[in-house]
């Protein structure tokens, strides 16, 4: 991110399934200590390509968090690497901002690992270091926050940010069909990030097909605290609302707290990520939250698999091509009360 508060993010998973087709969830949160260890979902090492091969060293770097989406990202990477006897995983402290992550990765590059799996603090700012690693012959798997130059990575795996906005827009559009004067609010995460811009564009483009627009928009910062303050400001600016899309279920903890404190119930809300907290509320029907759209931290498990395959010169066994794909985009799905039971086991704790 351009400005780098301590940001966490989402969690859910479905390791191997994430690589093949539409996977699952995501979000963002503050870095408060939680009692329970992050849940992980990984692919068992039972495929043909999982037979022990050339030993490889994979460096992994992502913003720090002990829970939420980012917590799940790191927990997944560690758990997936542990499934392979031929993988040595070196987890690299990403520091508090992009310059700190760059400095750490400079040292990593000098140690010449076989691959680096990197979730950048900010994709644009980390592009040059990704390119430097690739030029040094190190395979780089770009995770989630996209570099600005495709040559900076061997492969990219990410969620469908534009698709999240599309999914949220369709859910709200269908619920408000024909109500062209509806008042819709939006609470994004960090506006400087490209992923936020993509989500908002998908949302706006889809609402437009229903004759709807966002009337009130206040950005948060992927934390509980910023979610609460952004929601409080939005509610103050909008005495009446019909629907709200909050981009991130982790910051949604604060959003829901602000809504409850204000005593507002006249609208419904859609979340983003697929946290267990959000799904519990959807199932219970005890808040304005009636749906969430997914963004899968299982991508970290898949990124480790891709890094190992590429470092060993292998492709994906179900594809004809000899190398792993240059890009994998995971689909965003909509969780409602009708299908929440199917997704509950995959939810992550905000």
From TrEMBL:
Localisation per UniProt entry: Cell envelope
A Pfam family matched in the record: Peripla_BP_4
Superkingdom per UniProt: Bacteria
Keyword tags: Signal
Periplasmic binding protein domain mapped to chain residues: 58-314
Family label: Belongs to the bacterial solute-binding protein 2 family.
Matches recorded under PANTHER family: D-ALLOSE-BINDING PERIPLASMIC PROTEIN-RELATED
Name of this chain's protein: Substrate-binding domain-containing protein
Source organism (scientific name): Dactylosporangium salmoneum
